[in-house]
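Example record

Each entry pairs one chain with its bound ligand, thiamine diphosphate.
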Amino acid sequence: MSLDTAAVPRPPARGSSAPVLTGAQAVVRSLELLGVTDVFGLPGGAILPVYDPLMDSTALRHILVRHEQGAGHAAEGYAAASGKVGVAIATSGPGATNLVTAIADAYMDSMPIVAITGQVFSTLMGTDAFQEADIVGITMPITKHSFLVKEASEIPGAIAAAFEIASTGRPGPVLVDITKDAQQAEAPFVWPPKIELPGYRPVTKAHGKQIQAAAQLLVTARKPVLYVGGGVVRAGAAAELRTLAETTGAPVVTTLMARGAFPDSHPQHLGMPGMHGTVPAVLALQESDLIVALGARFDDRVTGKAALFAPNAQVVHVDIDPAEISKIRTADVPIVGDVRDVLVDLDAAFRGAAEGQKPDIAEWWSYLDGLRDEFPLGYTQPSDGLMSPQYVISRIGALTGPEGVYAAGVGQHQMWAAQFITYERPNAWLNSGGAGTMGYSVPAAMGAKVAEPDRVVWAIDGDGCFQMTNQELATCAINNIPIKVAIINNSSLGMVRQWQTLFYDGRYSNTNLNTGHGSIRIPDFVKLAEAYGCLAIRVEKEEDVDAAIQTALETNDRPVVIDFVVSADAMVWPMVPQGVSNSYIQYARDHAPSFDQED
Ligand SMILES: Cc1cc2nc3c(=O)[nH]c(=O)nc-3n(C[C@H](O)[C@H](O)[C@H](O)COP(=O)(O)OP(=O)(O)OC[C@H]3O[C@@H](n4cnc5c(N)ncnc54)[C@H](O)[C@@H]3O)c2cc1C
Ligand SMILES: Cc1ncc(C[n+]2csc(CCOP(=O)(O)OP(=O)(O)O)c2C)c(N)n1
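Structure tokens for the complex follow.
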């Protein structure tokens, strides 16, 4: 999206009664006025002016990270767990570029974060000045919008606008890059009374005719499915979703980004669709005659080969971002709007159209229930005598319960955490879905714990992912952020290894990490965690799993790290191999459900 920066509200000229602040003070004051209480960052030359007044703020808690990527993911975790805007601060050049991965991650997963970066003096811009990087240019394709601010007077307006853009419409990351001279200069501080952004008008209220058309389809469909995506979580629409689901009686599937948007325990819930979805969820979408997509974006991990996806289905697609509608799959009924409002309107329209009748979908349910019975989620015990990772993860979920927050890394452990923990509420499941960013888990859990200090927050991480961002354990230990980390240590880059098992004849090129099995154990995660001031436990036998989790749950004076040494041979099932029809879902090794396969 492009916005005219000139549209940012400007303060009146000097001579007004507004207090005169430096640009740096204006940054801090703006954040305070926006109600921000926590920011994650790391200083350097180009942002130093901001760090000075930050020290005096009693409203803002600055958490000093060890790497700016950690600040970015912490801001994401903060946003995902609380629904508020997360804030990350970095200096120019490498500080700003270290934020890029997290910004890209937030963009892919529609996370509302604001990144504030220092820029070199405006007079030096374009001269390859020390620590100069064109961060606005670099992040242009991965932000909702990027501001370059060169005047102190523009700072309050830019920051207010950044928060507005990040948190409204389709949420996403916004960057505010501020030159050092703008931070140092003085200007009257004028807070914009209203944010007016020409060209930025998210449509929240959907068209009534489209709602009626969708309701009619829901009344007549015999094989409907509610395909629920991360937009329902972002919209805070879990209650409205439940109402529509129960009114219509339709089956519900929740994408990886929507786990918890609909309770796992609800009888209408079929689980997660997609590459590693449940058989009933995958086949419900594939064989449906009506898909009602609610804040979901037909990702290729869900559709499989898009041309062969759900060949007999009509599609109602609800999304706040018009660019998503008919991007992958043509919508028969496109609905642009906030899914929360749409759900309310659709429920009312459906009640009117159905005239007190429930749609006749008994045959559909009987088929789906049969799939549920025949293909429950499960796993086989590894034959090498090592622990099963699925067992470990299911015990973490069972002993912690649905009020906990679970932030996963990326890989096999992420899929098992999505499959084997029961999610009953939105904002309990945090992960990197769109970008699949290894290293997300520990800093995201840190951000979540800062946002929700009274909740138990787990980072469920792989031994590969953990080695990318574990330095934030120091941040947690020093700042009294007692997260719990479960390293699902299969001593390998497990998800890549799984693909090598299946598609490269078991030729394990560069996937052995040597972190857990055999004589080499580098690093020793227990020693590493202890060095970071954490309580550290190693578990190698299933009979010790519960006690270690209980110890973690009872320890709140420091972070806890548990090194669960698990089998490397465990596989994520079911699986739809990449690029084929969802009809080719494999339930387990050499076990595909029997149904008519198209090519
Ligand atoms: C190793 C790995 C394996 C994966 N396997 C799977 C898998 O098996 N199954 C699976 O589902 N995913 C899987 N994924 C995740 C996948 O890559 C996508 O990230 C995910 O499917 C996208 O989820 P979504 O469709 O819910 O969209 P999201 O990315 O959550 O997007 C949300 C949508 O909602 C819209 N929206 C936001 N706010 C609102 C609002 N207020 N009102 C209306 N609309 C709104 C947005 O515009 C956007 O289109 C995997 C990822 C990894 C890393
Ligand atoms: C930054 C980054 N680099 C590489 C990848 C590709 N990749 C996806 S999963 C994975 C393995 C993750 O290993 P680990 O953290 O040990 O988790 P496991 O799969 O073993 O559970 C890799 C390398 C990625 N997603 N992100």
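Residues 1-11 have pLDDT under 50 and may be disordered.
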